[in-house]
Description:
Distance between the termini: 40 Å
Low-confidence stretches: 1-5
Helix content: over 70%
Amino acid sequence: MKQRTSITQGSILKALFRLAIPIMGTSFVQMAYNLVDMIWVGKLGTEAVAAVGTAGFFTWLAGAFILVPKIGAEVGVAQSTGQGDMNEVKKYIKHSIQMVICLAFVYGLIMIVFRKGLIGFFNLGDEEIVQGAISYLVIVSIGFVFYFINPVFTAIFNGYGDSKTPFIINSIGLITNLILDPLLIFGIGPFPRLGVEGAAIATVIAQAVATFVFIIKARKSLDIFSDIHLFQKPDTEHISKITKLGLPTAIQSGLFSIIAMVIARIIADWGPTPIAVQKVGSQIEAVSWMTAGGFQSAMSTFIGQNYGAGKWERVNKGYYIGMAIVSVIGVLATALLFFGGRDLFAIFIQEEEAIQYGIQYLKILSLAQFFMCLEITTAGAFNGLGKTVPPSIVGVGFNLLRIPAAIILSSTSLGLNGIWWAISISSVFKGIVLVAWYVILLKRQGKRLMV
Length: 451
């Protein structure tokens, strides 16, 4: 695998796009797993969507645990590559893979053992939805080792500057899922009709396929994957470094997931339809935050390698160029969600009541898209510098405020829309505060270098 030396030299705009476009593609591929499930499961009815959506909170929560080795691998590999230290690159790869495999087995076991209590938390009140959610959760938990390790492989390649490989491999997994979903959900041809369980099985198989392709690619990429002995005892120094880099972001993500579950519990008071609407709506909204997420990883890699190489001027310019790009994305996302709500929701759900709820959801959330894109990309810039704490402080602080805000606003004449407003307003403040924090950091660092 050829190292992408252009990241630390040449055109910043081209370097960012060269990194970001495949990463955005990978982000959309990962999002498409859920979207494909929602499209096919939606044909089974609102109850099936609610079941998958409820279980999906725990796969979402799993993402918090994945972030520890993922961020550690991405930042560690990027900075070590910028420094030209390939031995350190390999150490970050080895320890991040060891860590993520252990986390996958522990988390999956917890999900299976406590499945009834976890789903029971949402007080769904419909036995069919409850059983569907439990079945889905158990099946995906069995395959969590694949679900966990693929993002870490993706982060390793991205951190090294090769964002095309993860895009291709994750796309292979998506194609597998596209083929298996209708076959297993509806029992086409010789396959049994498995409904919600079929969607879970299709996802696990697709993730497993992607994992095996990653392993094949890794065995051929001897420049960074040679001499990586996963059965050797890990050293505490690199485990500590990875944890220090990834833990703040993981805590933020984990609390975000838990807060979302609490919000879902509040939404449940309005019945199963709003639950399904929130799940589908968040998948539609993911168009913008997945796009921004692509630039987040690109920004993290770009700044990480240039910071490692000691090129502060490129770090500074790269941030502002990246922010200009995502600003355009944020404006386009706002227009799409505000004006295209009916058409977007009709792809997933046919019931008119649910569509009306969905239109209101997307209009309110559309107002935060610009600020959300700024926040996500700025978090990537902080990560590239190895400063993962500030985004976590801002994220956790304003996300926690969503709970009292949702309770207060939903008790007014706004009703259910008050919950959506609580989410939207908090996203606006997160974007403003985090950008201001980073700009101040850039100015202070610049003054130090001038002294």
